Amino acid sequence: MLQFSKFVVVRAVLAIFTLVLVSFIVFSLMELVPGDCAERYLAFKSSQGSVITAADVQAERVRLGLDRPYIQRWGSWIINAFQGEYGDSCILRLNISQLLGEKFWLSLGLCLSALILAYAIAIPVGILAATSKNAFLNNGLRLVSYLGLALPNFLLALMIMLFSTVVFGDSLTGLFSKEFRDAEWSYARVMDFLGHVWLPIFILGWSATAFAIQTVRALMSDEIGKLYVTAAAARGVSGRRLLLRYPARHALSPIINSLGFDLNRIFNELPIVALILTLTEAGSLLIEALARSNDQQLAGAIIFLLTASIVGINFITDIILALTDPRVRRSIVG
Amino acid sequence: MTDVTNIDAAADQKLKEAYFTASQGQLIWQRFKKNKSALAGAWVLIFLILSGIFAPFLTPYDATIAGRDKEYLNGAPQIPSFCDDNGCSMRPFIYTTERTRSIKTNFRWVTETDTSLEGRRYVQFFTKGVPYTFLGIPFERHLFGVDKGMIHIFGTDSTGKDIYSRTLTAINTSMAVGTIGVVIAFVLALAIGGVAGYYGGWVDSGLQMMTDTVRTIPSIPLFMALAAFIPDTWSAEARFFFISMVLGLIGWPTLARRIRTHLLTERNQEYVLAAQLCGATPAHIIRRHLLPSFTSYIIVDLVISFPYMILSETALSFIGLGLKDPVNSLGVMLQNVTSADVLLNYQWYFIPVIFFIVLVLAFVFVGDGLRDAADPYSDSSK
User: What are B128's strand-pairing partners?
Assistant: First the structure.
């Protein structure tokens, strides 16, 4: 037990260290963007008619703490970031945590649902494909997984939009109907949300599903020919029982490890899919911040949060793997 | 009887000899040839790349704003036909269109088609058109064109640019972006992965930590953040090079990891030990023994990472952070297609998508085939 808690602590420290490195990269990126918050804010003010002097810019810098050295600013940014505080958005002059709040959780929920959907499809289909000798099924699945790569989620989203507009006359976009967009959460709003959310989840899960089927199939066909499976079959275990109790257990544990990277891949697609489907969540906010308003504070916070959730997933899967897989447990407890 | 067996045995011997003395390249080609889908992918890929290279000849018009057709904005694809109500002709033809605005059309611009005999535009081959240079030699012949006016087999966009011409040029752009990106990623990966794999120890751990951290950050948001640096004042060409560089700068971690793993495992192989015992210098070992042991894997990895580069570029350009207008790429062409107007009325904007799915699929098939072919154990495992 002691060794196990030691393992957890070491993993947690590693995860936090990774996050600190990530925050350094993200913070440096934000700093590299030409112009800082003070200049941008005052440029806005001067466009509103106020007269702005160089002294005003300097005063604003001091007010925002931008005159402090780089490392010091990074330090305070990262300390605040770990407390869930990202300061004010440069352009919108709003508190970022408030601005993001619900939207970030919405994005995370969408991506996790897409991930769950992907594996809910991929595990049974992959196992079936590995065990079946049906050439038609196997070739069909190969084609689907190739398409998963060649037709990235955002092109799929475009195609679905095109199709639904031509056939149904409705582009199926957005997360809420008009009347619920800014309403409080209620039963009707939840129902409306569920009516819209299935399409983004499907689209986000599309590539992930194709990849996951490929992985599950490969892992499963590696395991299925091994001697312990033959031995179990010789003892008289057969059918589904044989598959699920022996090769599947072994084949599926590496998958737990790769969940973090799968989530990474889904996050990759999130902003663009969000833009196409006009989802009101963090992904489209990120594009907004980067492509239109050049809001480095907001963009940095979103990228950091996305990465933090991947690191979090990696940490959790490490622990789960240690709990469920006796081989890994052995190597820790010794 | 014995003669026959002797001949058989001799032939067999010859085959075996050919097999055992074959170079790695020959072996890979042998295995690759057997894979039908990969071979088909290779043909499609060659066809697409060639049509990209010969785009100026294959397309009738300039792909930039210079080649616009003022008379045919947002025009539907014009499919040449042989017959209509006025009878048939040996030469395929399309109709003349004209944009008019009058009291009859409520003063809105309307495209009118003249379906009379006089309105026919006959398709001609090897027509004289816009001059272009290929390999430094000026040409003005194009594969096809029409006798008067213009022909748009994939339709036109909102400024009247020919979508067919743009699509073929866009293949070129994608290939160029992919090549630059892959080369930069490869050089970085070779340096970083090579150092990590060769020195091992804490250098390796440190570099691994760094690589893993870069890999955790979702790459497209990172692309977007980097691409947002580009000032609006940059020219389209400068943007193009910067975007390709960014793709390479972010694409290296996966490749670096592979190279490191290869080096780490190969370093302890017996043939390296044998070479060391013979007194070979480290430089000689790396050059003559280690590098050839995984060049094929690296080539395969490069081919496999190519479509990712193309798709990332498309994604970036699509949201407006990548390439910009005078440069053609799929992403640029798709920039405004999400509007309801386009979705409902101008579906031919989506034709280039087909080409790109085929291009990426071809790359994936070839990459997969090469991977199987480069793996010396792929035969025995099947």
Answer: B141
Q: Are residues B295 and B302 in contact, defined by beta-carbon separation less than 8 angstroms?
A: no
Q: Nearest 5 degrees, angle CA B271-CA B272-CA B275?
A: 85
Whole-structure pTM value: 0.79
Q: pLDDT tens across A11-65, in order?
A: 888 888 888 888 888 888 777 776 666 776 677 667 666 666 777 777 777 776 6
CA atoms of A286 and A264, how far apart (whole Å): 16
3-state secondary structure of A83: coil
> Do A222 and A251 meet the contact criterion of CB atoms below 8 Å apart?
yes
Domain A100-333 has CATH 1.10.3720.10: yes
Taking the Cβ of residue A260 and every Cβ of chain B, the question of whether any pair is shorter than 8 Å is answered with yes
Cβ pair A268:B357 closer than 8 A: no
What is the crossing angle of helices B201-216 and A296-324, to 10°? 120
DSSP B270-288: HHHHHHHHTT--HHHIIII
Q: Do A302 and B361 touch (CB under 8 A)?
A: no
Residue B105: predicted pLDDT: 65
* Residue A167 contacts B, CB cutoff 8 Å: no
- What value of ipTM does the predicted structure carry? 0.77
Best B208, B210, B212, B220 member to test A by mutation, with max A CBs in 10 Å, is B220
Every domain of chain A and the residues it spans: 2-98, 100-333
Cα B289 versus chain centre, distance: 32
